[in-house]
Write a structure and sequence with these properties.
Blueprint (H helix, E strand, L loop, with lengths): L2 H9 L7 H4 L1 H20 L4 E4 L6 H8 L3 E6 L2 H13 L4 E5 L5 H4 L4 E6 L9 H13 L1 E12 L1 H7 L3 E9 L4 E10 L8 E11 L4 E11 L4 H10 L2 E8 L7 E8 L1
Parallel strand pairs: 1-2, 1-4, 2-3, 4-5
Antiparallel strand pairs: 5-11, 6-7, 7-8, 8-9, 10-11
Helix pairs in contact: 3-4, 7-9
The structure holds S-adenosylmethionine.
S-adenosylmethionine binds next to helix 4.
InterPro entries: Gly/Sar_N_MeTrfase, Methyltransf_25, SAM-dependent_MTases_sf
GO biological process, one term: regulation of gluconeogenesis
Pfam family, one: Methyltransf_25
Length: 260
């Protein structure tokens, strides 16, 4: 396994069940976003969807419940196995494979009505790789189909030089746990270098009266909107929907692109 794959696999470790705690704000935000986008998906007659960084399968579950045929892939084998397990439990029929988005065209031969690449997965790729990822997403999208991406706006993120970011907190009644999670960030001098993320999730099991701390770290790349938008234009894409959320826990810029 190469270093990138290894880092991503361990950063998104699900052994301790902390993924949904770290991204609980993202899960809520995604559900609202999918509701907002329903009319657009209907207008473009979306039936088949692939999520190319499906994580633990949260978006696939939502999309299946809205009536779409769903497929998934992810670079991390940890994530693929967890998504398969989670979706089986929820009776979601789907096929999920392990693939880097940079090789997705080799691993998947079909094209889809909607191609999803969300949760700032672009931040795990270098600037050149981000361009290749956009090209590849276009490659597996049907003509007149849609691509849904989101990313942290690297220019604003770097500029703010924020050191601490509250990620999520709440009570998980199913697992009888109370959780609190945050990032500690280290930004470089310019936005062409990687920034460092340390994630911390503090979990209190109130049945067993036990506390555990889940720690992980990774380096990531800033995503510069102009780079992404230029690449979309190179692929003849048209931006149909744009949402930038800067309040609360969210810092994501979401785009829906039409492949002409
Ligand atoms: C923050 S998670 C987001 C998961 C999911 N899309 C969501 O929004 O909840 C980022 C995901 O991107 C995956 N990922 C990172 N780099 C990738 C790549 N090059 N190709 C495919 N997936 C990748 C990670 O394994 C992880 O599951």
């Amino acid at each position: 396994m190469d270093k990138k794959n290894n880092d991503i696999n361990s950063f998104y470790s699900t052994e301790n069940g902390d993924f949904n705690y770290l991204y609980s704000d993202h899960i809520d935000f995604s559900q609202i976003l999918f509701e907002t986008l329903e009319p657009l998906f209907k207008e473009y007659k979306v039936k088949t969807v692939i999520d190319c960084c499906c994580g633990v399968g949260n978006d696939l579950k939502d999309l299946f419940q809205k009536g779409y045929d769903v497929y998934g892939s992810d670079l991390s084998l940890n994530m693929v196995n967890t998504a398969i397990k989670n979706l089986k439990k929820e009776n979601v029929p789907t096929k999920i494979i392990q693939s880097d988005v940079l090789y997705i065209n080799k691993n998947i031969k079909e094209t889809f009505d909607l191609v999803v690449f969300r949760g700032n997965a672009l931040g795990h790729l270098s600037s050149d790789e981000q361009k290749k990822a956009i090209d590849n997403l276009f490659g597996i999208t049907k003509n007149n189909g849609l691509i849904f991406i989101d990313f942290r706006n690297g220019e604003k993120y770097h500029h703010k030089n924020k050191r601490f970011e509250l990620r999520g907190h709440g009570i998980d009644k199913h697992n009888s746990e109370i959780y609190f999670s945050y990032y500690i960030l280290k930004h470089p001098k310019n936005n062409f270098e990687q920034y460092k993320i340390k994630s911390r999730t503090l979990i209190f099991d109130y049945k067993k009266i036990k506390i555990r701390l889940v720690c992980s770290k990774i380096e990531a790349n800033y995503v510069i909107p102009d780079t992404i938008i230029d690449r979309i234009k190179c692929n003849n894409g048209k931006i149909l929907f744009e949402k930038s959320v800067e309040n609360g826990l969210q810092h994501l810029q979401s785009l829906i692109i039409l492949k002409i």
